[in-house]
Design a protein that fits this description.
This protein is of the alpha+beta class. The chain has three domains: 174 residues, no CATH class; 213 residues, Transferase(Phosphotransferase), domain 1 (Orthogonal Bundle), CATH 1.10.510; 126 residues, no CATH class. The protein is 52% helix and 10% strand. It has 21 helices and 17 strands. Strands 2, 3, 5, 6, 7, 8 and 10 form a seven-stranded antiparallel sheet that branches. The chain has a four-stranded mixed sheet with strand order 9-14-13-11. A hairpin with a 5-residue loop joins β2 and β3. α7 packs parallel to α12 and α8 runs parallel beside α10. Bound molecules: adenosine-5'-triphosphate. GO terms for molecular function: ATP binding; transferase activity. Pfam families: ABC1 (PF03109). Belongs to the protein kinase superfamily. ADCK protein kinase family. Keywords: ATP-binding, Nucleotide-binding, Transferase.
Amino acid sequence: MASSKDLTRLLTGLSLVANEFVKRSSPPDFQTLFKNALLSATDLSGITKGNLRQFSNPPPPSSSHHATASDSVVFFTDHASSQSHSAAAAATTTTNVDDVDHLSSEANRRQSPDANVGDVAVQITEDLRSAKTADEAATAAEVAPALPVVRKRRPRERKVPATPFSRALGFAGLGAGLAWGTLQESAKRLAFGTPNLQGNQSAFSPFLSESNAERLALALCRMRGAALKIGQMLSIQDESLVPAPILAALEIVRQGADVMPKSQLNQVLNAELGPDWSSKLISFDYEPIAAASIGQVHQAVMKDGVRVAMKIQYPGVADSIDSDIENVKLLLNYTNLIPKGLYLDRAIKVAKEELSRECDYKLEAANQKRFRDLLAGTDGFYVPLVVDAISSKRVLTTELVNGIPIDKVALLDQETRNYIGGKLLELTLKELFVFQFMQTDPNWGNFLFDEVTKTINLIDFGAARDYPKRFVDDYLRMVLACANGDSDGVIEMSMRLGFITGEESDVMLDAHVQAGFIVGLPFSKPGEYDFRSTNITQSISHLGATMLKHRLTPPPDEAYSLHRKLSGAFLACIKIGAVVPCRKLLLEIYKHHKFGDENEILSSGSVSA
Ligand SMILES: Nc1ncnc2c1ncn2[C@@H]1O[C@H](COP(=O)(O)OP(=O)(O)OP(=O)(O)O)[C@@H](O)[C@H]1O
């Protein structure tokens, strides 16, 4: 029902604008302010405005460069400079000659000229929709729950709000828009009654209405940066736990952000790579293959003919991580949706650190090279090469790879899905327990399955981190205790790792141990674990509420990214309906693991296969 609390929310949203005024020593001129206010006002009425992408070709950057008249691809055809620039690129790049040769041959092997990732994914979805034979229909029915009906959004071209002020204003507009949506929904419920959705969904607050969820999603797509990243993290959730309208809105967020206009894109490229950046390329496609949370990705062809993906960071997002997250926190606070036991401040601190690392593409390049080395001898995985000569702190150029994103492999045959599920779990266990270095962003788009080579192409290493040896040793002991149903072992290791203090109530300890056993279930029995018939996520969510209520300490810092990744790996197996010999994979790791402190063995628990 419309209440004074809703009005307070509306005012809190608007007060963000006022706050920003007070904080700023030099307020913007009134014309800009008026324009921004208008933009926010437009957003209040649905936040759905924005120009659809229309790529008109600009005048060529110099006389030696030519734009095609037909589409978004611009060709740079200066032959003389092509040779010298190609040589310069080869000289400055840190990849060695073997790597460059390898890059060319790998690229030829992997890049089928006409197909791109999106096409394949769309094709699969189309196949599902148009299944005609009984077999196809049966397969479609089998995978149907794994593919929610998604409303496709046409990408909008909108400038990234790049200054702290324009970003704060965007959040203020969103805050006010959400409050307005809440008022509308409350009024609707007053007149027509609370909608009777399935399960307990009718109990959701009017804040979580369908229109508010969509409003939030579209605003995040326009803002991009840290806020969108958080939305995308939330979007990787089990369908059975999240109400359908919210899930649909989060899917919008997951599909990608709005697109930077060409002028803004060129500004970033010139500033990062110098005005002659195009001299290293044969062509550059101004239509992005993806608009992600922190940057958008474009295809280009290098002078040696190799196709590459250039990830170009949105301006201003790196400098506004702190303020973006504070604004998200403000929004969350006045929704009253955050339970106390979430220790939001701690989670926010960790998120800020992770996001600032992700904005440093030099760090990402280093992570990617490290993973490439670590996985060099492992069958079934491929990490694309980094092209240092066309990379900087805000631009990352890597070899272009093909593949179907993991969430879209549901229509492939069972054997292939089992293979992919097994490979994903093998990789996850290896990263943590063998490499002690993990890519912690479980976004399904980061794993591209190439059907021809049966290889999972891995991309996006911005969120990679090391785990200390002692943490890894104890975590492995804890996972084994969970798998073996050993409650003393779970409690002992959880205390050592900092998940509990030991002073918790019996209710909390019991919930903690039960949650551990549920997560350990796939590893508990010899043979194959069938992720198609699991209810891990539902069981955990019941215990989660108890744990949030009775928790005495936030989880250790390492746990945030780690648990995001582990649950991402499980959810991927559930989503694709894989059947995986989980215990065998775990015991294989355990058998070869060298514990740092050999004397300290797990108090109980067997390692029988
Ligand atoms: N080397 C590549 N080959 C093919 N496609 C790529 C490559 N690099 C990036 N992409 C495409 O661009 C998308 C976004 O790239 P990436 O995940 O690296 O960006 P990000 O900003 O870290 O994204 P996110 O917000 O998902 O974390 C990928 O999902 C993929 O579709």
